[in-house]
Amino acid sequence: MQGLIDFLSQGGYAFYVWSAFGMTFALLVAEVVVLRRSRRTILQRVGRLARLRTQNVPPGEPS
Amino acid sequence: MKINWFKYASPTAFYPVAGRLVPVFGVAALALMLFALYWGFFETPERLGGTNPQKEYYRIIFIHVPAAWMSMWLYLVLAAWSAVGLVFNTRLSFMMANAVAPTGAIFTFLALWTGAFWGRPSWGTYWDWDPRLTSELILFFLYIGFMALHSAIDDNRRADQAAALLAIVGLVMLPIIYWSINCPDPNNCAALHQRSSVTDIESNILTAMLVMTLGFWLYSFAAAFARLRNIILLREQDSAWVRKMVDEAGAGPSSSPPPGAGAADGLDAGGHRASRGVSV
Amino acid sequence: MKARQKRLMFVGVAVVGVGIAASLALTALNSNIAYFFSPSQVQAGEHPTDAVFRVGGLVVEDTLKRQEDGLTVHFDVTDNAEIVNVSYTGILPDLFGEGQGVVAKGRIGTDGVFYADQVLAKHDESYMPPEVEDTLQTAHAKGVVETSTESMPAASMPATGQTVTQ
Q1: What are phi and psi for residue C165, nearest 5 degrees?
Q2: pTM summary value
Q3: Which parts of the sequence lie on the Extracellular side of the lipid bilayer (chain C) (predicted)?
Q4: pLDDT at C78 over 80
Q5: Are the beta carbons of C119 and C104 closer than 8 angstroms?
Q6: CATH number belonging to domain C36-121
Q7: C-contacting residues of B 146-175, CB under 8 Å?
Q8: In chain B, what are the domain boundaries?
Q9: Nearest to C133 by CA among C88, C164, C98
Q10: Distance from CA of A12 to the nearest CA of B (A)
């Protein structure tokens, strides 16, 4: 337990150390999340287009 | 053994290749980064000695230096793909450049951010108009400018060319950044930033730093390839091969996610419920 | 209409970005070349008398004096040729110390003392643990063992000493 507290306090420089490492972690995770979300959105859109095509609904759809 | 590399120069051919590479690079990057974190926090001295008695905050070096290296390396990659695209007029090269840019911007920001939180306890300030810091900030603006210029032009081909030109012009910043710390007499210079060194460094500190660099590098591959796939899908959504791929995958109603679909997609190597709608 | 507004906004952002970048470059040049003076230049009278500028060099050994209030310090900065007296009120950075490189920002008083409102410490590019460093120093000192060469205050020493794993 004391070891964990010592580790987290980083000799009194916890604010600086964890601000730096925390932002790195947050940004890398955020990038992964954004990439996956946009992939989902794009696939949904492509799928919707495909569905419209199979139902032969829009005549004006570009091919 | 002869491989026809030009076969992979088309977005159609590279799309599935990138899809297979993303989880490989992603998992390897995660493993290396975790190892570097462990080594950096548990196998290194708590403070430095000699005339440079930095305390625990020096551990920011384990992300600061790798992020700074990646910021410059990824800009070089960005400019190289831009140049290849302009010269050979290959669509995939421009897409590669676009795929690298946001990741490069993130690492540039991280280099500045982690540097600020290292500078505050050691130098006494978060920010200073030091040549190294200022030139790195301009590199960040170059990344932002590249992305902003590209998204400001609707026509993809013209956007590609304009942004590529900006990327090549911005290449002048790399040598400026590189030599911005070479003050002949460090004690008679306004510059705060210390010179780079991989010789006068303890082996454990060096190990954590280099492994983290490798981890960031592989992460960049994974992120850029994942983004490349998004860009390819978006740009080729009306093409026959994307339609065929979607049709074959069975375009269900996109409002209800098919369970367990697409576990091999993108970065979700862990089999999370990642893909809703159509999985390819 | 919406797309045009978006385009306009991006062009605006780009213009502002380029402008900021250019002004940053100029600021950097100004603050680092035009407004930086070595102690020799200050003693030769090349510094501005009524503007803020920077002085940099090494803190001379045994010149650091702390006033009664505990916040105001006096020290000398040298470029190994000339010396400038510096007075500063505030918290010194962690790496500030005698023999270390500093950059002080402030203005010079009529008494010739440089009154700093910011003192920044520099550090070198060595990343060696104290123990290794000590061994090297001892080796240099022809085998003569000096007791506790590190000037580190005892209170800041870690309770668990084991730091180096080699």
Answers
A1: -120, 100
A2: 0.80
A3: 29-166
A4: yes
A5: yes
A6: 2.40.50.140
A7: 148-149, 151-154
A8: 36-243
A9: C164
A10: 8
Choose the closest CB to B148 out of C14, C32, C164: C14
Instruction: State how beta strands C36-37 and C53-59 pair.
Output: parallel
Residues with Cβ within 8 Å of residue B255, at least 6 apart in sequence: none
What ipTM goes with this model? 0.85
CA distances from B19 to A38, B7, B13, B24, B148 (A): 15, 16, 11, 9, 27
Give C14-41 pLDDT, tens digit per residue.
667 766 776 676 566 555 555 788 898 8
Mean of pLDDT values over B37-61: 89
Per-residue pLDDT tens for B54-93? 889 999 999 999 999 999 999 999 999 999 998 888 899 9
d(CA C13, CA B47): 43
pLDDT band at C147 (very low <50, low <70, confident <90, very high): very low
C39 touches chain B (CB under 8 A): no
Cβ atoms of B132 and B118 closer than 8 Å: no
User: Residues of C with CB below 8 A from B187's CB?
Assistant: 56-58, 79, 101, 122
